[in-house]
Specification:
Length: 336
């Protein structure tokens, strides 16, 4: 049950005392080690008071970065609308302390201009996002996924145009592989608008970025923010004693299903949990510290369904270091 939140919000005075911040690639923009995404639990089907409590607690703990996309909900667009409502109630006077991002790339409206990477779609989508959130500008605007059919030059020129219009301060790409990242960075550099960041999936259970992307991002000066670092909850203690009714796996999500909670998974999660406990951390905290161990990493982009999870994840920064034998023990479990 969600308790009603106090109508008056004054952020904690000590909000910048604990969170770690890091420069994003070769830019002057620092992001918190832990960022909060609004993909799940912020839609029209969710409770506004719970969202509001999570965002307040996050900001109190130094999480200055909130990540959205045009299609987050459900229904699509409702996460941005809810975020706009909460901005009105609690955060408008702190706009200069917030890094708000949104994206376009996935299906948003019918017809040939409602998805992918044309200039037509990106400009129209960002205008709609700004309206839903009640903002003049976002801090970061992303192209959400590579488009195999639109020339990359057109998509990148649209991002450059959006920055010159003043509708985004920085631009990024998402789900781009190493080669696509190098190409996007080159085109944007030539246009005079640097590619700030690539947002990609990375966790102990999904390690594709290690092949070539970490090096490509570092050499191009592009930051990396890792989404689903907890593998949507699999890299936490959420499922160790069964499948809670309010969990993502039990809810009607197309992205995490009950069938994924197998004995083989549970055996790995339990052993990883034991290593985390020896480090004095929760499994979630260890999984976040693990993705942040790379020098090329900028931030771990989490989702949460409760204030308690926000608090638990933010406290990761108390222990980000790994001993060699801890990393080896983790490797052994992951490679089995
Ligand atoms: N660019 C892209 O294509 C893309 C794609 C996906 C996501 N994203 C971004 O990444 C963000 C995060 O994605 P995600 O939600 O999949 O991330 P995640 O952090 O891997 O998973 C979040 C889920 O893990 C559980 N959890 C979180 N903290 C916990 C804790 N301390 N203890 C126990 N359980 C915990 C919660 O599950 P329950 O709900 O079951 O409590 C929560 O909803 C999104 O909001 C979005 O901004 C981007």
């Amino acid at each position: 049950m969600t308790l009603p939140v106090d109508p008056y919000y004054l952020p904690a005075d000590n909000r910048y005392n604990v969170m770690a911040f890091k420069y994003t690639g070769r830019s002057g923009l620092k992001l918190p080690a832990i960022s909060l995404g609004l993909w799940h639990n912020f839609g029209g089907v969710d409770t506004l008071e719970n969202m509001r409590a999570m965002l307040r607690r996050a900001f109190d703990l130094g999480i200055t970065h909130f990540d959205l996309a045009n299609n987050y909900g459900p229904p699509p667009g409702s996460a941005e609308e809810n975020f706009g409502r909460i901005l009105d109630k609690d955060f408008r006077s702190f706009r200069s302390e917030l890094i708000i991002s949104t994206k376009a790339g996935y299906y948003m409206w019918p017809g040939p201009y409602g998805e992918w990477g044309s200039r037509k779609y990106l400009v129209a989508s960002l205008d709609q996002s700004l309206k839903r959130m009640g903002l003049d500008y976002v801090d970061i605007f992303y192209h959400h996924r590579p488009d195999p059919d639109t020339p990359l030059e057109e998509t990148m020129a649209a991002l450059d145009h959006i920055v010159r219009q003043g509708k985004a301060l920085y631009v990024g790409i998402s789900n781009y592989n190493a080669e696509q990242t190098r190409e996007a960075a080159r085109i944007l550099r030539e246009l005079g608008t640097p590619c700030l960041i690539n947002q990609v999936r990375y966790s102990m259970f999904d390690r594709w970025v290690e092949d070539a992307l970490l090096d490509a991002a570092a050499s191009e000066g592009v930051g990396l923010i890792f989404f689903s670092p907890l593998a949507q909850g699999l890299l936490t203690d959420r499922y160790l004693d069964g499948i809670p009714a309010d969990s993502r796996a039990a809810r009607p999500s197309a992205f995490l299903k009950e069938e994924q909670i197998t004995e083989a998974y549970l055996s790995k999660a339990r052993r990883l949990n034991a290593i985390a406990q020896n480090r004095g951390q929760t499994l979630a905290q260890m999984a976040l510290a693990w993705v942040l161990r790379h020098p090329a990493s900028t931030s771990a982009l989490i989702g949460t369904s409760s204030v308690k999870q926000v608090e638990n994840n933010a406290a990761t920064v108390a222990n980000l270091a790994f001993a060699g034998d801890e990393l080896q023990a983790i490797e052994t479990i992951l490679s089995e």
